[in-house]
Amino acid sequence: MRVTEQIDALETLAYDPVAYLVVPRVIAGVIMFPVVVILADALGIAAGLGTAIVRLDMSSFEFLKGLRLFFVPWDVWFSVIKSATFGLTVTSVGCFFGFHTSGGAEGVGRTTTRAVVVSTMIILALDAFWAATLLR
């Protein structure tokens, strides 16, 4: 028995629940995780500039000179690749466990915890995989 009959209702109406519920979430995760990471990278650089100007009495020219010397574009690509796979993992594992939830509110709590643990383990393995594969 599922927690709600929403999936059964979609099937009754001849909708594919995977196409209707899972695919949009997975696509959103794969797209938005890298967007958030790129935003965080940009904010990190901006915060570094602000800190360098205010706390270290550096000029913006000195900061940008150092940024040009030490900034490696591959680091940004590496973070985007990793975040896209992490987004795929988080959304697909969450959807998988969501489809197989039963037992009312208590079952939702158990399933949510299980999904978080499984996602975390897969992300740790993916992180090691990408580090070994892309950081040669």
Structure description:
By secondary structure, the protein is mostly helical. It has one domain (6-39, 71-134). Helices cover 84% and strands 0% of the residues. It is built from five helices and no strands. The chain starts with 5 loop residues before the first helix and ends with a helix. The model has no long low-confidence stretch (mean pLDDT 92).
Q: Which percent range describes the beta-strand content?
A: under 5%
Number of helices: 5
Secondary-structure-based class equals mainly alpha
Averaged pLDDT: 92
Q: What is the rounded Rg?
A: 21 Å
**Main β-sheet description:** none
Secondary structure: helix percent: over 70%
Number of strands: 0
Order of helices and strands: HHHHH
Low-confidence stretches: none
What's the gist of this structure?
This protein has 136 residues and is mostly helical. The chain has helices at residues 6-12, 17-54, 60-70, 73-99, 104-134.
Structural features:
5 helices, 136 residues, 84% helix, single chain, mainly alpha
Secondary-structure blueprint:
Blueprint: H1 6-12, H2 17-54, H3 60-70, H4 73-99, H5 104-134
Helix pairs in contact: 2-4, 4-5
